[in-house]
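User: quick one, sequence for these C-alpha coordinates?
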Protein backbone atom coordinates (compact mmCIF):
# COMPACT_ATOMS: atom_id res chain seq x y z
CA UNK A 1 0.00 0.00 0.00
CA UNK A 2 1.26 3.46 -0.73
CA UNK A 3 -0.26 6.33 1.17
CA UNK A 4 0.68 9.93 1.59
CA UNK A 5 -0.99 12.84 3.24
CA UNK A 6 0.00 16.43 2.72
CA UNK A 7 -0.60 18.46 5.80
CA UNK A 8 -1.85 21.93 5.20
CA UNK A 9 -2.92 24.29 7.99
CA UNK A 10 -6.62 24.41 8.87
CA UNK A 11 -7.53 27.28 6.60
CA UNK A 12 -8.83 28.01 3.17
CA UNK A 13 -5.42 27.73 1.58
CA UNK A 14 -6.25 26.62 -1.97
CA UNK A 15 -5.09 23.21 -3.12
CA UNK A 16 -5.56 21.00 -6.18
CA UNK A 17 -4.81 17.27 -6.00
CA UNK A 18 -4.86 15.08 -9.12
CA UNK A 19 -4.39 11.40 -9.93
CA UNK A 20 -3.74 9.36 -13.08
CA UNK A 21 -5.39 6.12 -11.99
CA UNK A 22 -4.78 3.17 -9.68
CA UNK A 23 -2.52 0.77 -11.55
CA UNK A 24 -1.15 3.44 -13.88
CA UNK A 25 2.59 4.03 -14.13
CA UNK A 26 3.78 6.08 -11.15
CA UNK A 27 6.51 7.54 -13.37
CA UNK A 28 3.77 9.50 -15.15
CA UNK A 29 3.49 11.78 -12.13
CA UNK A 30 4.65 14.73 -14.26
CA UNK A 31 1.30 14.56 -16.10
CA UNK A 32 -0.55 14.80 -12.80
CA UNK A 33 1.66 17.71 -11.73
CA UNK A 34 0.89 19.57 -14.97
CA UNK A 35 -2.83 18.98 -14.34
CA UNK A 36 -2.63 20.17 -10.72
CA UNK A 37 -0.77 23.29 -11.86
CA UNK A 38 -3.45 23.98 -14.49
CA UNK A 39 -6.10 23.70 -11.79
CA UNK A 40 -4.17 26.04 -9.52
CA UNK A 41 -3.69 28.54 -12.36
CA UNK A 42 -7.44 28.44 -12.93
CA UNK A 43 -7.96 29.38 -9.26
CA UNK A 44 -5.42 32.19 -9.55
CA UNK A 45 -7.32 33.45 -12.60
CA UNK A 46 -10.39 33.79 -10.41
CA UNK A 47 -12.26 30.55 -11.09
CA UNK A 48 -14.04 28.64 -8.37
CA UNK A 49 -13.25 25.11 -7.21
CA UNK A 50 -15.38 23.32 -9.80
CA UNK A 51 -13.89 25.13 -12.78
CA UNK A 52 -10.42 24.46 -11.41
CA UNK A 53 -11.15 20.73 -11.10
CA UNK A 54 -12.39 20.71 -14.71
CA UNK A 55 -9.25 22.57 -15.86
CA UNK A 56 -7.07 19.96 -14.16
CA UNK A 57 -8.94 16.98 -15.60
CA UNK A 58 -8.90 18.46 -19.11
CA UNK A 59 -5.10 18.29 -18.99
CA UNK A 60 -5.23 14.63 -17.97
CA UNK A 61 -7.77 13.89 -20.73
CA UNK A 62 -5.31 15.34 -23.26
CA UNK A 63 -2.43 13.20 -21.99
CA UNK A 64 -2.44 9.91 -23.96
CA UNK A 65 -0.70 8.09 -21.10
CA UNK A 66 -3.91 8.10 -19.08
CA UNK A 67 -7.17 6.22 -19.59
CA UNK A 68 -9.46 9.21 -20.14
CA UNK A 69 -10.28 11.35 -23.16
CA UNK A 70 -7.46 10.88 -25.69
CA UNK A 71 -5.83 7.59 -24.70
CA UNK A 72 -9.01 5.92 -23.44
CA UNK A 73 -9.03 2.13 -23.65
CA UNK A 74 -10.76 0.45 -26.57
CA UNK A 75 -13.81 -1.68 -26.05
CA UNK A 76 -13.58 -5.34 -26.99
CA UNK A 77 -14.45 -4.79 -30.65
CA UNK A 78 -11.17 -2.88 -31.02
CA UNK A 79 -12.80 0.27 -32.43
CA UNK A 80 -15.28 1.67 -29.92
CA UNK A 81 -14.38 4.07 -27.11
CA UNK A 82 -17.04 4.93 -24.52
CA UNK A 83 -16.11 7.52 -21.90
CA UNK A 84 -17.60 8.59 -18.57
CA UNK A 85 -17.03 11.80 -16.59
CA UNK A 86 -18.49 13.72 -13.68
CA UNK A 87 -18.20 16.92 -11.67
CA UNK A 88 -19.59 18.00 -8.29
CA UNK A 89 -18.99 20.78 -5.80
CA UNK A 90 -19.94 21.50 -2.22
CA UNK A 91 -22.32 24.23 -3.38
CA UNK A 92 -24.67 21.81 -5.09
CA UNK A 93 -23.44 21.70 -8.68
CA UNK A 94 -23.56 18.21 -10.17
CA UNK A 95 -23.19 16.89 -13.73
CA UNK A 96 -22.14 13.65 -15.41
CA UNK A 97 -21.98 11.82 -18.73
CA UNK A 98 -21.78 8.09 -19.46
CA UNK A 99 -21.02 6.12 -22.61
CA UNK A 100 -19.96 9.29 -24.42
CA UNK A 101 -18.15 8.83 -27.76
CA UNK A 102 -15.94 10.99 -29.97
CA UNK A 103 -15.42 13.97 -27.68
CA UNK A 104 -12.07 15.42 -26.61
CA UNK A 105 -13.04 16.57 -23.11
CA UNK A 106 -15.86 14.53 -21.56
CA UNK A 107 -15.36 16.40 -18.27
CA UNK A 108 -16.32 19.66 -19.98
CA UNK A 109 -19.54 18.06 -21.20
CA UNK A 110 -20.23 16.76 -17.67
CA UNK A 111 -19.76 20.29 -16.33
CA UNK A 112 -22.25 21.60 -18.90
CA UNK A 113 -24.80 18.95 -17.86
CA UNK A 114 -24.79 20.65 -14.44
CA UNK A 115 -26.50 23.63 -16.12
CA UNK A 116 -29.38 21.48 -17.48
CA UNK A 117 -32.43 20.25 -15.56
CA UNK A 118 -30.64 16.86 -15.24
CA UNK A 119 -27.51 15.49 -13.61
CA UNK A 120 -26.56 12.60 -15.93
CA UNK A 121 -26.79 12.16 -19.70
CA UNK A 122 -25.72 8.97 -21.48
CA UNK A 123 -25.07 7.52 -24.92
CA UNK A 124 -26.58 9.22 -27.94
CA UNK A 125 -28.25 11.93 -25.85
CA UNK A 126 -24.93 12.81 -24.24
CA UNK A 127 -23.24 12.98 -27.64
CA UNK A 128 -25.98 15.15 -29.13
CA UNK A 129 -25.75 17.43 -26.07
CA UNK A 130 -21.95 17.62 -26.49
CA UNK A 131 -22.36 18.76 -30.08
CA UNK A 132 -25.06 21.23 -28.97
CA UNK A 133 -22.59 22.94 -26.60
CA UNK A 134 -19.94 23.05 -29.31
CA UNK A 135 -17.77 20.02 -28.50
CA UNK A 136 -16.48 18.97 -31.92
CA UNK A 137 -15.87 15.50 -33.30
CA UNK A 138 -12.70 13.95 -31.86
CA UNK A 139 -11.23 10.47 -32.31
CA UNK A 140 -9.69 9.54 -28.93
CA UNK A 141 -7.97 6.37 -30.20
CA UNK A 142 -4.19 6.42 -29.82
CA UNK A 143 -1.45 3.98 -30.92
CA UNK A 144 -0.96 3.17 -27.22
CA UNK A 145 -4.64 2.22 -26.87
CA UNK A 146 -4.39 -0.02 -29.92
CA UNK A 147 -1.29 -1.71 -28.45
CA UNK A 148 -3.10 -2.21 -25.12
CA UNK A 149 -6.01 -3.79 -26.99
CA UNK A 150 -3.67 -6.16 -28.85
CA UNK A 151 -2.04 -7.13 -25.58
CA UNK A 152 -5.47 -7.90 -24.08
CA UNK A 153 -6.28 -10.11 -27.05
CA UNK A 154 -2.93 -11.92 -26.66
CA UNK A 155 -3.73 -12.64 -23.03
CA UNK A 156 -7.09 -14.00 -24.03
CA UNK A 157 -5.49 -16.24 -26.60
CA UNK A 158 -3.18 -17.56 -23.88
CA UNK A 159 -6.24 -18.15 -21.66
CA UNK A 160 -5.12 -15.72 -18.94
CA UNK A 161 -7.93 -14.51 -16.71
CA UNK A 162 -8.49 -10.80 -17.35
CA UNK A 163 -10.98 -9.73 -14.71
CA UNK A 164 -10.59 -10.73 -11.09
CA UNK A 165 -13.28 -13.25 -10.16
CA UNK A 166 -14.73 -13.34 -13.67
CA UNK A 167 -14.40 -16.14 -16.21
CA UNK A 168 -13.24 -14.87 -19.63
CA UNK A 169 -16.01 -16.93 -21.18
CA UNK A 170 -18.66 -14.69 -19.62
CA UNK A 171 -17.75 -11.94 -22.13
CA UNK A 172 -18.44 -14.29 -25.04
CA UNK A 173 -21.61 -15.53 -23.36
CA UNK A 174 -23.04 -12.02 -22.97
CA UNK A 175 -21.51 -10.51 -26.14
CA UNK A 176 -23.59 -7.44 -27.19
CA UNK A 177 -21.48 -5.79 -29.91
CA UNK A 178 -22.90 -5.43 -33.43
CA UNK A 179 -19.76 -7.15 -34.76
CA UNK A 180 -18.78 -10.73 -33.90
CA UNK A 181 -16.25 -11.57 -31.19
CA UNK A 182 -12.88 -11.86 -32.95
CA UNK A 183 -11.15 -13.73 -30.17
CA UNK A 184 -12.30 -15.08 -26.85
CA UNK A 185 -11.40 -11.70 -24.50
CA UNK A 186 -4.40 -6.94 -19.15
CA UNK A 187 -7.45 -5.58 -17.64
CA UNK A 188 -7.27 -1.80 -17.70
CA UNK A 189 -9.52 0.27 -15.48
CA UNK A 190 -7.73 3.48 -14.70
CA UNK A 191 -9.44 6.81 -14.24
CA UNK A 192 -8.19 10.37 -13.84
CA UNK A 193 -9.45 12.81 -11.26
CA UNK A 194 -8.99 16.05 -9.36
CA UNK A 195 -10.14 17.38 -6.01
CA UNK A 196 -9.97 21.07 -5.14
CA UNK A 197 -10.32 23.35 -2.14
CA UNK A 198 -10.57 26.99 -3.14
CA UNK A 199 -9.78 30.13 -1.17
CA UNK A 200 -13.41 30.41 -0.12
CA UNK A 201 -13.27 26.97 1.51
CA UNK A 202 -15.45 25.38 -1.18
CA UNK A 203 -14.72 21.88 -2.45
CA UNK A 204 -15.04 20.30 -5.90
CA UNK A 205 -14.27 17.03 -7.61
CA UNK A 206 -14.00 16.02 -11.27
CA UNK A 207 -13.29 12.62 -12.81
CA UNK A 208 -13.00 11.10 -16.26
CA UNK A 209 -12.37 7.61 -17.66
CA UNK A 210 -12.34 5.45 -20.75
CA UNK A 211 -13.78 2.72 -18.54
CA UNK A 212 -12.54 -0.84 -18.21
CA UNK A 213 -11.17 -3.32 -20.69
CA UNK A 214 -12.43 -5.92 -21.26
CA UNK A 215 -16.04 -4.78 -20.99
CA UNK A 216 -19.36 -5.34 -22.73
CA UNK A 217 -20.72 -2.51 -24.89
CA UNK A 218 -22.50 0.09 -22.77
CA UNK A 219 -20.74 -0.89 -19.55
CA UNK A 220 -20.60 1.99 -17.02
CA UNK A 221 -18.40 1.91 -13.92
CA UNK A 222 -18.19 4.14 -10.87
CA UNK A 223 -16.76 7.32 -12.40
CA UNK A 224 -20.09 8.99 -13.34
CA UNK A 225 -22.02 7.59 -10.37
CA UNK A 226 -22.51 10.06 -7.54
CA UNK A 227 -21.23 8.81 -4.20
CA UNK A 228 -19.35 5.93 -5.83
CA UNK A 229 -16.57 7.45 -7.97
CA UNK A 230 -16.90 11.01 -6.72
CA UNK A 231 -18.41 13.13 -3.98
CA UNK A 232 -18.07 16.70 -2.74
CA UNK A 233 -19.87 18.05 0.31
CA UNK A 234 -19.36 20.19 3.41
CA UNK A 235 -16.62 17.88 4.76
CA UNK A 236 -14.48 17.82 1.61
CA UNK A 237 -14.13 16.20 -1.80
CA UNK A 238 -13.19 12.64 -2.75
CA UNK A 239 -12.31 11.05 -6.11
CA UNK A 240 -11.96 7.30 -6.53
CA UNK A 241 -10.16 5.15 -9.11
CA UNK A 242 -10.16 1.40 -9.63
CA UNK A 243 -12.58 -1.26 -10.68
CA UNK A 244 -16.02 0.28 -10.80
CA UNK A 245 -18.01 -2.91 -10.26
CA UNK A 246 -16.46 -3.14 -6.79
CA UNK A 247 -16.35 0.58 -5.96
CA UNK A 248 -20.09 1.12 -6.52
CA UNK A 249 -20.98 -1.57 -3.97
CA UNK A 250 -19.38 0.54 -1.23
CA UNK A 251 -20.55 3.96 -2.48
CA UNK A 252 -16.92 4.63 -1.72
CA UNK A 253 -16.56 8.38 -2.27
CA UNK A 254 -19.64 9.14 -0.16
CA UNK A 255 -18.56 6.67 2.50
CA UNK A 256 -15.15 8.33 2.83
CA UNK A 257 -16.76 11.78 2.89
CA UNK A 258 -19.02 10.53 5.69
CA UNK A 259 -16.07 9.29 7.73
CA UNK A 260 -14.39 12.70 7.37
CA UNK A 261 -17.64 14.43 8.33
CA UNK A 262 -17.64 12.30 11.50
CA UNK A 263 -14.16 13.60 12.35
CA UNK A 264 -11.91 10.84 11.04
CA UNK A 265 -8.55 12.26 9.85
CA UNK A 266 -8.30 12.28 6.05
CA UNK A 267 -5.33 9.92 5.92
CA UNK A 268 -7.10 7.38 8.17
CA UNK A 269 -10.25 7.59 6.03
CA UNK A 270 -8.28 6.89 2.83
CA UNK A 271 -6.42 3.96 4.38
CA UNK A 272 -9.64 2.53 5.82
CA UNK A 273 -11.25 2.68 2.37
CA UNK A 274 -8.65 0.27 1.02
CA UNK A 275 -9.44 -2.27 3.73
CA UNK A 276 -12.96 -2.67 2.33
CA UNK A 277 -11.57 -4.45 -0.76
CA UNK A 278 -9.90 -7.71 -1.66
CA UNK A 279 -6.24 -6.79 -2.29
CA UNK A 280 -6.58 -8.21 -5.82
CA UNK A 281 -8.90 -5.28 -6.69
CA UNK A 282 -7.19 -2.07 -7.87
CA UNK A 283 -8.35 0.85 -5.72
CA UNK A 284 -7.06 4.39 -5.29
CA UNK A 285 -8.40 7.63 -3.83
CA UNK A 286 -7.54 11.29 -3.51
CA UNK A 287 -9.26 13.65 -1.10
CA UNK A 288 -9.19 17.11 0.37
CA UNK A 289 -10.85 18.52 3.49
CA UNK A 290 -10.50 21.64 5.64
CA UNK A 291 -7.07 20.75 7.01
CA UNK A 292 -5.54 18.05 4.83
CA UNK A 293 -5.24 16.51 1.43
CA UNK A 294 -3.76 13.27 0.22
CA UNK A 295 -3.78 10.14 -1.88
CA UNK A 296 -3.82 6.44 -1.15
CA UNK A 297 -3.80 3.34 -3.35
CA UNK A 298 -3.12 -0.37 -3.16
CA UNK A 299 -1.30 -0.07 -6.51
CA UNK A 300 1.13 2.30 -8.11
CA UNK A 301 -0.80 5.50 -8.72
CA UNK A 302 0.64 8.71 -10.17
CA UNK A 303 -0.66 11.74 -8.33
CA UNK A 304 0.38 15.30 -7.54
CA UNK A 305 -0.70 18.38 -5.62
CA UNK A 306 -0.37 22.11 -6.18
CA UNK A 307 -0.88 24.49 -3.27
CA UNK A 308 -1.62 28.19 -3.46
CA UNK A 309 -0.70 30.99 -1.13
CA UNK A 310 -2.96 31.64 1.82
N1 LIG B 1 -13.05 3.34 -12.32
C1 LIG B 1 -13.32 3.32 -13.68
C2 LIG B 1 -14.33 2.36 -14.09
O1 LIG B 1 -14.58 1.37 -13.41
O2 LIG B 1 -14.91 2.55 -15.13
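Assistant:
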Amino acid sequence: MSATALNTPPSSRPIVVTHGGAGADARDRDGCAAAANAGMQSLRDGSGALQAAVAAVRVLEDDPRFNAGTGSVLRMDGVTVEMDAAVMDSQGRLGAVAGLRRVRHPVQVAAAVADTPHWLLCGEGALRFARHIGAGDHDPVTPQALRKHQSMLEKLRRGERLVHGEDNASFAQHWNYPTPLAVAPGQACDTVGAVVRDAGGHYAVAGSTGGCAPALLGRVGDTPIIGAGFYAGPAGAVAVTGIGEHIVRHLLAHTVHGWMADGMPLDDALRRALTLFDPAIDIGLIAVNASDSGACSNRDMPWAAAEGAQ
